[in-house]
């Protein structure tokens, strides 16, 4: 089948090629509603799809942003992708979403592949282990914003939760309910990531501040596979009456591993938490505001470069939700 061209659309609509080009680039200033309708109908009848790469080379930009997430299985990740896409679309950008599955090699492959597709920049949930590649992006002035995680000693700006505060809010909420023997459970820190480390630190600080017992065995950082055994050991040692789960996936593992009901708080917004028993305290991340800030910073870098970014870390306060 012959490929439909912009000339075919112009002929079908009875207008010039330049007019169709203006329409495709959303330059409607001097175009009547009737002409726009004719072109739109011609595009539909011919099933015309513009060559985005050719247009991007001509216009010096693909209007495409790569979003590379660390693990797409988290509720937080899917929520923030939704908001990032909305805010980027409002600015005329398309997005390509990739999942690194917490694997630095997969992350590197995604970045290289998206660069080959000439994306204009990245919003990246970094694994933290591709330092040379992050540096290359920075030095080549490719706009990048880190989301959810920081990379130490790097100039790329980051947007993330105040994780220590989130743990403190969780501990305070459980303590107000009368719980005093608390533990925190989070993912393994074999690959140390910002949220996991900071949530452990925040838990320990708040427990100390409230003069509650806090030994090392009450801070569990383990893989999802190992968490059940670690919980069994914990309950054998200490009469734990409440647990702070570091995220939604950890929460599900904890709930399936408890020897008896305890108080629960989770640092994540769990849509079904209101239907769970016992009642669960959720500490949500303000995903829409975080996404809006990430897009704002991305656009600023694209326009003005990294040197003019006002801050390198943008922290957002957690939101306590009683379910």
TrEMBL record:
<dbReference type="GO" id="GO:0003700">
    <property type="term" value="F:DNA-binding transcription factor activity"/>
</dbReference>
<dbReference type="InterPro" id="IPR001761">
    <property type="entry name" value="Peripla_BP/Lac1_sug-bd_dom"/>
</dbReference>
<dbReference type="Pfam" id="PF00532">
    <property type="entry name" value="Peripla_BP_1"/>
</dbReference>
<dbReference type="InterPro" id="IPR010982">
    <property type="entry name" value="Lambda_DNA-bd_dom_sf"/>
</dbReference>
<keyword id="KW-0804">Transcription</keyword>
<dbReference type="Pfam" id="PF00356">
    <property type="entry name" value="LacI"/>
</dbReference>
<protein>
    <submittedName>
        <fullName>Transcriptional regulator</fullName>
    </submittedName>
</protein>
<dbReference type="InterPro" id="IPR000843">
    <property type="entry name" value="HTH_LacI"/>
</dbReference>
<keyword id="KW-0805">Transcription regulation</keyword>
<keyword id="KW-0238">DNA-binding</keyword>
<dbReference type="GO" id="GO:0000976">
    <property type="term" value="F:transcription cis-regulatory region binding"/>
</dbReference>
<dbReference type="InterPro" id="IPR028082">
    <property type="entry name" value="Peripla_BP_I"/>
</dbReference>
<feature type="domain" description="HTH lacI-type">
    <location>
        <begin position="4"/>
        <end position="59"/>
    </location>
</feature>
């Amino acid at each position: 089948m012959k490929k439909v061209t912009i000339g075919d659309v112009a002929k079908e609509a009875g207008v010039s090629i330049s007019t169709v080009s203006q329409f495709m680039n959303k330059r409607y200033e001097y175009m009547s509603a009737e002409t726009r309708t004719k072109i739109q109908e011609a595009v539909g009848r011919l099933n015309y799809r513009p060559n985005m790469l050719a247009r991007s080379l001509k216009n010096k930009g693909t209007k495409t942003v790569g979003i590379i997430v660390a693990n797409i299985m988290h509720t937080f990740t899917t929520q923030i992708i939704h908001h990032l896409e909305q805010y980027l679309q409002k600015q005329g950008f398309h997005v390509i979403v990739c999942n690194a599955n917490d694997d630095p090699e997969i992350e590197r492959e995604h970045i290289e592949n998206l660069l080959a597709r000439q994306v204009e920049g990245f919003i990246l949930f970094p694994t933290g282990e591709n330092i040379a590649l992050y540096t290359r992006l920075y030095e080549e002035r490719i706009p990048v914003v880190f989301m959810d995680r920081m990379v130490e000693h790097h100039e790329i700006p980051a947007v993330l939760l105040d994780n220590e505060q989130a743990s403190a809010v969780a501990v305070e909420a459980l303590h107000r309910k009368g719980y005093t023997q608390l533990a925190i459970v989070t993912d393994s820190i074999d690959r140390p990531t910002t949220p996991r480390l900071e949530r452990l630190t925040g838990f320990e600080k708040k427990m100390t501040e409230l003069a509650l017992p806090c030994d090392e065995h009450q801070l569990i950082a383990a893989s999802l596979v190992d968490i059940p055994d670690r919980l069994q050991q914990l309950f054998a040692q200490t009469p734990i009456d409440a647990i702070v789960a570091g995220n939604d996936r950890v929460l599900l593992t904890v709930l399936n591993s408890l020897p008896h009901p305890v108080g629960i708080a989770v640092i994540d917004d769990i849509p079904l938490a209101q239907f769970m028993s016992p009642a669960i305290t959720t500490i949500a991340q303000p995903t829409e505001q975080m996404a809006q800030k990430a897009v704002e910073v991305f656009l600023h870098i694209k326009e003005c470069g990294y040197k003019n970014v006002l801050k390198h870390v943008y922290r957002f306060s957690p939101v306590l939700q009683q379910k």
